[in-house]
Amino acid sequence: MGAWAIAVHGGAGVDPNLPAHRQEQAKQLLTRCLQLGISALNSNHPAIDVVELVVRELETDPLFNSGRGSALTENGTVEMEASIMDGTKRRCGAVSGVTTVKNPISLARLIMDKSPHSYLAFSGAEQFARQQGVETVDNEYFITPENVGMLKLAKEANAILFDYRIPIGKETCGAGIESPLQMNGLPISVYAPETVGCVVVDSEGRCAAGTSTGGLMNKMTGRIGDSPLIGAGTYACDVCGVSCTGEGEAIIRGTLAREVAAVMEYKGMKLQEAVDFVIKERLDEGMAGLIAVSNTGEVAYGFNCNGMFRGCATQDGFMEVGIWE
Amino acid sequence: MGWAIALHGGAGDIPLSLPPERRQPREETLRRCLQIGVEALKSKMAALDVVELVVRELENCPHFNAGRGSVLTNKGTVEMEASIMEGNMNCGAVSGLTTVVNAISLARLVMEKTPHIYLAFDGAEEFAKEQGVETVDSSHFITVENIERLKQAKEANRVQIDYTQPIQKTDAKKETPIANGDSQLGTVGCVAVDSHGNLASATSTGGLVNKMVGRIGDTPIIGAGTYANELCAVSATGKGESIIRGTAARDVAALMEFKGLSLEEAAKCVVEERTPKGTVGLVAVSAKGEIAMPYNTTGMFRACASEDGYSEIAIWPSGLN
């Protein structure tokens, strides 16, 4: 206790051929977000506020797959989801299927603070947003030309998969055909890293976590991934705060975020050990990554896929931003 | 070893004074559903098929809060949700259904026929049409009792807002034993282990009476209302928000796995120590054929049976039934 720590991520599963300038852009964004969080922590803002602040920044920037810049559904629209959790008392809020709300993470927070429920979705969530007077825009605002192009490629990739009757989902395109790197059934160049997230422990030892996403490129309309699911994409309790990213279905099955806390609570593991254990043992064939902080001021991350956009910082001045191993 | 099955029709503040006409049809349904599950297991049906079959039966019964008989949203509509999970970690979930007769079956189709786990609202309804599952006009699900429950819930809320007082539970119980006692009923669910040691869990609900449109509870959330792995299968019921933050179903399995607790100890721990009193009940079976049905509410509609001949149907703690 006594020292703060923060970590952010912009998605796990990175195209190894990502152009250098894009890598630079990503690192700059991660750095900027870290600095935003650090500044708030130094002014003694509670963890939950810092998480919301940083995730808002990530949502607003079109670079990653959340808010503006979200991946597109099969219909070419955007359906965003997010969840936030306050480790103290494990209060939580989540949204799915938002189409006009500029910052889904803030709507998730309002659900936690201002509604009798924990999770609202689709038209119900949109109605609540209007009642609360949050900032809303047209769905077009969130759509970037880049993602329109990606959607086309994704549809083509899926067409190929269907032609060769290769099963989609958990199994990769491994029926004797030389396959490119894949995640969630899409070639890595087209698979948009799924989410953004932030975890924070403040100087009072309070943990919080938040995750936000546009979801899987070319997803079925109405598809909900791991990001809004408490225990899967997001979790925070007395001992830690966790945010996950990667193949949503694998994260849900593995209740990944909760898992980190569970092995800390029930097996007495320390943070890094817990993170390593979960990534190694809980993903089977699934590909994912996560960031985590502990109530004792530690920060850790892990991933079993090709890269994860991440950054972390601790009060003693340590700061690191990275993409690859 | 051997097969085992447990099912529930909701945990909540079920008053001991529940009149016979409200009690018997439900006990009868529990009995019938238990029978169906037991016969299926005896004929070597797989656990996944058994839990789906039993939950379909519970959904079709208008006396429980799932499928027909679902409680109503604040707009007087029905929004149903469900999830299903197998011991090999395959799972499926749906939310926001308004016309699908059996939510649990749609959840299974999501699991088996899509690359996703969870579909909701319009997207789920569209998928249902594509799959040709049975759909009906939404009015099919609405019962007279639930219209009444909604009315009373709204009145209680109105009082609360007007007088800024918490709802006096005892007063409400005196005047509206139906509304308050029954309105806490969370869900229906079934867990089973078959003769091959395969586990499965299924949970289905109409949600919370007078809920905001679009509200999602614990039932479709893997790890909260439903969970299964190679150790156990769990289905939870009660106050959704408490089950979500406590990741109740997953916690039973986690305690077994990480702390080496037995099924009974793990289930008891979750219900007695990890969730607030008055909020949760669950049914669980282990790969070894053990059964646990703990709850921290006044009662829980439940039934279970195992291959060694044991069976039980109950609402309150033993001795009070």
Q: Tell me the strand order in the biggest sheet of chain B.
A: 4-3-2-6-5-1-11-12
Beta-strand segment tally of chain A? 15
How far is it from the N-terminal to the C-terminal residue of chain B, by CA?
29 Å
Helix percent band of chain A: 25-40%
Task: Please state the structural category of chain A.
Answer: alpha+beta
Globally, the shape of chain A reads: globular
Helix content class of chain B:
25-40%
Into which percentage range does the β-strand content of chain A fall? 15-25%
Work out the helix count of chain A.
8
Please compute the radius of gyration of chain B using only Cα atoms.
18 Å
H/E series of chain A, N to C? Answer: EHHEEHEHHEEEEEEEHHHEEEE
Tell me the span between the first and last alpha carbons of chain A: 29 Å
- Total strand count of chain B, please? 12
SSE order of chain B: EHHEEHEHHHHEEEEHHHEEEE
> Please, what is the oligomeric state?
heterodimer
Biggest interface found: A-B, 50 and 44 residues
Using only CA atoms, what is the Rg of chain A?
18 Å
Reading side by side through the largest sheet of chain A, how are the strands ordered? 4-3-2-8-7-1-14-15
Organism (chain A): Acacia crassicarpa
Subunit structure (chain A): Heterotetramer of two alpha and two beta chains arranged as a dimer of alpha/beta heterodimers.
Binding site for substrate (chain A): 223-226, 245-248
Enzyme class (chain A): hydrolase
Layout: helices, strands, pairs:
The complex is a heterodimer of chains A (325) and B (321).
Chain A: E1 5-12, H1 20-42, H2 47-60, E2 80-86, E3 91-98, H3 104-114, E4 119-121, H4 122-132, H5 145-163, E5 182-183, E6 186-187, E7 195-201, E8 207-213, E9 223-224, E10 234-236, E11 240-246, H6 248-253, H7 256-267, H8 271-281, E12 288-294, E13 299-303, E14 308-314, E15 319-322
Parallel strand pairs in A: 3-4
Antiparallel strand pairs in A: 1-7, 1-14, 2-3, 2-8, 5-6, 7-8, 10-11, 11-12, 12-13, 14-15
Chain B: E1 4-12, H1 20-42, H2 47-60, E2 80-86, E3 91-97, H3 103-113, E4 118-120, H4 121-131, H5 144-163, H6 169-175, H7 177-183, E5 188-193, E6 199-205, E7 226-228, E8 232-238, H8 240-245, H9 248-259, H10 263-272, E9 280-286, E10 291-292, E11 299-306, E12 311-314
Parallel strand pairs in B: 3-4
Antiparallel strand pairs in B: 1-5, 1-11, 2-3, 2-6, 5-6, 7-8, 8-9, 9-10, 11-12
Helix pairs in contact in B: 1-2, 2-3, 5-7, 6-7, 9-10
